[in-house]
């Protein structure tokens, strides 16, 4: 069985509080985009991962393996699996490449064994793998609250997006640890953004996007700011860092403008893509 699993971006990201265990409470607008990994899963004598990207772990720390283990244990499955991942989504980029692979494995095993799990049941299992995983059973445009697990489906928006992943590594843990909540002066107006989405007002949506985690990353990595500026110079309606970064995206109504921006960024960044929003998850 082969599952195509999309990447996500965060059209906005606000931190609205902290849980007792130190995890940050969020309000995010999530969106799936047309950059896909392919996950092929077949029965085998042992569970193993084969991936075309050497930065993806092949041991039990791979989220796809953790998804297999969880499904095996929960549904008393004796078989083992070969998981072949065609990795097209940049790794550790703020695009939730690992999470979408985990969701794909849950979906594949549900189908292979005719488990007939509901979307809500799969979301519940997905949450055990990570806060971003349940979203991939909704896909499209969603509001995510809590640490990402409380999902509300919104109208699906439609536009072109340029993604640019600078060649730097940003640790999610570092970003959250260094976020000084009381020093953040600009938060997204999430309610208003939801209204723009409701009326499909891409211009106002793009102009209103805020990701509070940029307060940490831009200070450390000015290249994020530089990419945002280039995107705006090349006609983006808005540009933002996705998740904890370092990927930056720009929103475009016209494909021709997105391609011009892509061509400019390709001069100095390797991982650049023109994609569009999609209304599906895994
Ligand atoms: C920023 C977001 C936005 O979608 O995505 P990515 O950039 O990873 O795609 C998510 O919040 C990424 O959440 P998640 O995938 O659970 O983060 P992990 O890498 O597991 O978390 C690493 C560490 O960051 C901190 N952390 C994480 C999530 C959260 N809501 N509050 C936190 O304080 C915790 O200290 C945790 O140990
Ligand atoms: N299937 C997978 N694909 C990518 N990364 C994975 C996978 N499984 C585990 N990882 C680990 O998860 C980390 C975060 O990767 P990823 O999910 O791509 O990024 P992000 O959380 O920034 O959106 C990587 O550094 C990698 O070690």
From TrEMBL:
Pathway(s) of this molecule: Isoprenoid biosynthesis; isopentenyl diphosphate biosynthesis via DXP pathway; isopentenyl diphosphate from 1-deoxy-D-xylulose 5-phosphate: step 3/6
Keyword field contains Cell division: no
Function of the protein: Catalyzes the phosphorylation of the position 2 hydroxy group of 4-diphosphocytidyl-2C-methyl-D-erythritol.
Domain of life where this protein originates: Bacteria
Binding sites annotated in the UniProt record for ATP: 90-100
Molecular functions per Gene Ontology: 4-(cytidine 5'-diphospho)-2-C-methyl-D-erythritol kinase activity; ATP binding
GO process terms (BP): isopentenyl diphosphate biosynthetic process, methylerythritol 4-phosphate pathway; terpenoid biosynthetic process
The enzyme's E.C. designation: 2.7.1.148
Keyword terms, alphabetized: ATP-binding, Isoprene biosynthesis, Kinase, Nucleotide-binding, Transferase
Pfam families reported in the protein's UniProt record: GHMP_kinases_C, GHMP_kinases_N
Active-site residues per Swiss-Prot or TrEMBL entry: 8, 132
Catalytic activity field: 4-CDP-2-C-methyl-D-erythritol + ATP = 4-CDP-2-C-methyl-D-erythritol 2-phosphate + ADP + H(+)
Family statement drawn from the similarity comment of this UniProt entry: Belongs to the GHMP kinase family. IspE subfamily.
Lineage: Bacteria, Bacillati, Bacillota, Clostridia, Eubacteriales
HAMAP family: IspE
Residues in GHMP kinase C-terminal domain copies: 199-268
Residue ranges occupied by any GHMP kinase N-terminal domain in the UniProt entry: 62-140
Entry annotated with the keyword Ribosomal protein: no
Name of the protein in its database record: 4-diphosphocytidyl-2-C-methyl-D-erythritol kinase
